[in-house]
């Protein structure tokens, strides 16, 4: 048993033994450290040395061991109840020699009892907490009253926990707790200065910042946010102050323009107020400061008396008529000279002029209200320092009665042949480019008062109806009628124009529907539509085109072959029944090549070219008083053609007695060949197949005949 480890003295085991289906339980505390107070014994153990105790189950051999001779059980390791509270084991007695069981196994349970071997622990430490500053004594037990976050924000404390009620022998654990004081609104905003002064130029734009103020607050977050406002001063409506959300500054801005010449100083009173109320008293926290604004003089452009001008002018106004005038003054020097100009980008047609000294606008070109009723131009005013200001000038062109009324559209009326007298042919209305204030009133009349064919009727709505006087209109008699109508307005002075209405006589159905207005259509068979007429016309045109093409082709085919002056003779195909010059005749009609060079000396010129001799034009033949003698005329023309050297065909002497000096390819004739058929072997013809067999036999027969 010396090899078994000892058990610490503060451990004990409750052991329940079940031997031969009987169980017993023991509970030992304060046992010796040498062994566990567990002893197994069997009735078979009477001092025999052949008995052996065997242990099995949870932890057998690793945690627990048994003395095989005495049955004592020992612990081999420290036991920890927090890891495992009990173990189930089995003990048995076997024969030492044969290892055979001598009795059934017995089961027992070892329970590990708890002792105070673990100190208390804080699971989620270290801890953090918060408490509002200036808190009273409460559950958190603030020991120091009136703690101020602005003085100290965090506190670190250590907390200890003990078990066993804090008695001797107990264990303990510690953790840290960080307590942060949260902010409350217990500090007012405070301006960095009690008085501010800003210099702002008078030309500062509306809404532009003129200065910044800042009120500091020792609080943080929402408790430190403040708003700024103006509560006093002269002309407070000239300025406004807004809060910058990022920097918590107050921005002084302009609400109205400044004028150095009118007012040069402004005194304002402003306050900064916390958004949240005082956490102690409940009232608002605020601070107050004064602001002095000094207006600085700036070189300003001239200012017009009006931002925009509107003038009226009649469209018949004469050139150089004064339309109106504009006025501007120099704000810095009221008596300074101001010069006026028209921005020509707004008056591209140069319709108006302006006097550079007094600003009077005059007419430069005639106006036409019907072309453009409004003219918008920009006038600039320039002072000595070249500062420029602009003003819009709108000029309205007033209407006068300078346009005559005319037909609203190009009318073309149709009159039925079978119409009745008094039928309405066309309704006519008129338009006028002028625009009188009381509206238009038009008067109509026929240029020919007693027109035998037509009359008009007033419809009392500035329109008329054209009526037929009779029913004897016929297309064969007159197809178109031109009816002049005079239209007059009631302007001052009255304007009139003569407009012509074209009336065409047409064939209509019984219901009065126009069917045809052409005279040719009257003689066509009834029922022949316009589509059929177009188809017939297309066929006729197609036939004419075919005939023209046929005649043109025949004419080109029958034209005689004529050698033109600027045409090479070799480009024409000329047929001869004579034999040519052979393969060496590469130059057409070269007589020198066709002649034998051994029998010809000298140069033989070509005769198939147009001679240089110019034939004098012949005198025209005058016929006798009784007509033309045809036979005489033909003979004269024949004689002229025979004696005219310039008329084709040209005479040419050609000799074909020489075939040339030879050819690289050799002669194709078999008359003078140096070889004979007997030198040829035609046996291969029989090998070419049945188609050449007969040919081979013929040549073979010829060779055998020659041999015989």
TrEMBL record:
- Annotated localization: Cell junction, Adherens junction; Cell membrane
- A GO CC term assigned to this protein in UniProt: synaptic cleft
Pfam families registered for this protein in UniProt: CADH_Y-type_LIR, Cadherin
Cross-referenced PROSITE patterns: CADHERIN_1 (PS00232), CADHERIN_2 (PS50268)
The species this protein was found in: Triplophysa rosa (Cave loach)
Its membrane topology is listed as: Single-pass type I membrane protein
GO BP annotations of the record are:
adherens junction organization; calcium-dependent cell-cell adhesion via plasma membrane cell adhesion molecules; cell migration; cell morphogenesis; cell-cell adhesion mediated by cadherin; cell-cell junction assembly; homophilic cell adhesion via plasma membrane adhesion molecules; morphogenesis of an epithelium
- Annotated Cadherin domain residues: 42-122, 147-191, 192-304, 305-407, 407-522
Where would you find the membrane-spanning parts of this chain?
522-551
| Single GO molecular function | beta-catenin binding
Subcellular location, principal: other
SMART domains the UniProt entry points to: CA
Q: Which UniProt keywords apply?
A: Calcium, Cell adhesion, Cell junction, Cell membrane, Glycoprotein, Membrane, Metal-binding, Repeat, Signal, Transmembrane, Transmembrane helix
> Which InterPro entries has this protein been placed in?
Cadherin, Cadherin-like_dom, Cadherin-like_sf, Cadherin_CS, Cadherin_Y-type_LIR, Catenin-bd_sf
This chain belongs to the protein called: Cadherin-8
- State its role: Cadherins are calcium-dependent cell adhesion proteins.
